[in-house]
């Protein structure tokens, strides 16, 4: 079974094994999707744990993600005051504007990060329907995708085959372009640009009315543009502090913050607590994934992942991140 053969680490980018160091009994693996899928999927992650003792972990707000469990115990997710679970084997995590907490009991979680462009090609539904929600994958994106992922992963006995499997499955699902893809790409780039926070400024840069920007952001990104821009600004700043262990060095925060108290108010909104208290809580997998994801994929967290400006056309054929639930894909 796959659960007996997860080694952790990565087979791409020649990243040193030390990047994936985890406590005993836990492993983590990240992989890049096939280049033909890079605009639609932000990464593959696997977290695994041999320990069946209940474990809590906190994760940062993120864009949409698909999670598939393999030989994992009951899993529950809490977003703010809402609790979801026990989750189905294949679940869809909608875009979140709050840090969320998972309670796991060992096993493997395979995470697939989904970009706004990927969402636009998968479904005509609004991502805003799933803001801060976790639902069965079949109810969000259809039973066919859910069944292919679950059955495919169950048939594997080697973690190095997970990436080829995911590439093959998703290669058949992104063949229908959306007419506003250039706009979605451009807004994605602005959400990861330092200092960009005002909706009117963004609308002017994109040359669209603010009401059209609001509709586009909610439909494809899952929340209003102002909230998306604030989330990205906060995460850029928060992760800069984590990386340098300088939780009091507010010179590293985004240039659009007026002062430290302004940043701390956003921490209350997106973390539900202060940065120090959050990072001191149950964040074993979060801290490891920030390091590993940055080395393999190029951005420490999915919310700061910029969609590639161009990608090879998706062909309807097989094409060519890993460890314990839940992954930051």
Jot down its keywords.
329 residues; alpha+beta; Jelly Rolls; Arc Repressor Mutant, subunit A; six-stranded antiparallel sheet; 11 helices; globular
Task: Please outline the helices and strands.
Blueprint: E1 26-31, E2 41-49, E3 55-59, E4 65-70, E5 76-79, E6 82-84, E7 90-93, E8 100-104, E9 107-114, H1 116-122, E10 134-136, H2 137-141, H3 143-154, H4 162-170, H5 181-191, H6 199-206, H7 210-221, H8 225-243, H9 260-270, H10 275-279, H11 284-296
Helix pairs in contact: 3-4, 8-9
The number of helical runs is: 11
CATH topology of the largest domain: Jelly Rolls
- Placed side by side, the strands forming the largest sheet appear as 1-2-9-4-7-10
Helix content: 25-40%
Protein described:
The protein has 329 residues and is α+β, with helices and mostly antiparallel strands. It has two domains: 2-177, Jelly Rolls; 181-279, Homeodomain-like (Arc Repressor Mutant, subunit A). Helix content is 34%, strand content 16%. The chain contains eleven helices and ten strands. The chain has helices spanning 116-122, 137-141, 143-154, 162-170, 181-191, 199-206, 210-221, 225-243, 260-270, 275-279, 284-296, and strands at residues 26-31, 41-49, 55-59, 65-70, 76-79, 82-84, 90-93, 100-104, 107-114, 134-136. β5 (76-79) and β6 (82-84) form a beta hairpin. The longest helix has 19 residues, at 225-243. It is globular, with a radius of gyration of 19 Å. The two termini are 23 Å apart. Mean pLDDT is 85; it is low at 308-325.
